Amino acid sequence: MKDLTSIELEIIKRTDDISGFVLLPKRWVVERTFGWFNRFRRMSKDYEAIPKNSESLIYLAMTHIMVRRLGA
Question: What residue spans define the domains of the chain?
Fold first, then answer.
């Protein structure tokens, strides 16, 4: 079982050969999640000085989003 604090990062780069719009895999998931975070006023800017506080706010925001979806 993976540790909950470990993060796997995969960098997806655009190729210079193709111009115009090209769908990049999984990128929309991250961008959509950041968009959800912007709905929470305290998370719209990076006000927290301690990273642990920022992490706690992310957990709180995602919990709020999940509870609202379960209640709908």
Answer: 48-72
